[in-house]
Amino acid sequence: MDIKLLHAFVKLAEKGNYSHAAKSLFLTQPALSKQIKALEKLTNGQLFFRGRHGATLTSFGEQLYPKANEILQSHVEFLNYAKQLNNPNHEKLFIGFGISSFQNVPHWINQFRQQYPECDVEINQLPSSVQMEMLQEGGLHAGFVRMPITKNLASQVIHEEILALAVPTICDIEPTDIQRILSAYPLLQLDPLTNPCLAAETTLFLQNNLLNANQVSITGDMTTLLALVAGGNGIALLPKSVQHFLPDGVKLLIPPNNQIRWEIGVSWNPELKNCFRDDFLKIVMNDIT
């Protein structure tokens, strides 16, 4: 099977829109549609519901989505391994990150590249659970994750994160009246399969504050979610760190009671030795201490 078909499937699932997915894959919409149909024929099942509002995964598609991501990751790791065999003298550093470290990580990578131009850096945005698994298996050299970490990994706390409420700027309801806001707008959520920590934090916040919400799951990424909030289509509980890339039309409210807080840290596997990883960690440590 052509790996491009899985790329098309995963990208359309993330974007939830044929136009946006095709653009990010540098394809035309008819070409993307052709690839999705080819994959549906190979799997003998419908992967998406198609409608005026875009493309939504079917139950069959939802079951295949995690496996497709896993295969794509294995494909990347295979190609990286092959490149290392062909070019053993050129090092490469693999780093994972999440929303809460979005602002800091590029800055540290730029510093590293300036000091160590002989080492390439590849970064991937991944859930904390996936990062920790890859750190244990050697697929990542360093990861920026939600604490606490899996045992056998080392870590250093970077900063504290807090759950905030992203609302349209036209919303004039006070943050002290969260239930009124939840009654006025649906609560939009990213797919729990790809954002398990955020889904758990959202559930915990609602339970701790005895709040009722009309929860609506959306197919897409953070950019899609914030665009929907900006358009007045709903609200969303997100890490406060999204403040660094909020679009026009969205503001953040910090809930005054029963706040959900957690720590973000950099993690690595001390059993696996890598000099360039250690040099990168020194840059991070020097910046946060």
Q: Brief description of this entry?
A:
This protein has 289 residues and is α/β, with parallel strands linked by helices.
Summarize the helices and strands and which ones pair or pack.
Layout: H1 3-15, H2 18-24, H3 29-43, E1 48-51, E2 54-57, H4 59-86, E3 91-97, H5 104-115, E4 119-125, H6 128-137, E5 142-146, E6 154-168, H7 178-184, E7 187-190, H8 196-208, E8 215-218, H9 222-230, E9 236-239, E10 250-253, E11 261-268, H10 275-288
Parallel strand pairs: 3-4, 3-5, 7-8
Antiparallel strand pairs: 1-2, 5-11, 6-9, 6-10, 6-11
Helix pairs in contact: 1-2, 1-3, 1-4, 2-3, 5-10
Offer a few descriptive terms.
289 residues, alpha/beta, Arc Repressor Mutant, subunit A, D-Maltodextrin-Binding Protein, domain 2, 3 domains, 7-stranded mixed β-sheet, two-stranded antiparallel ribbon, 11 strands
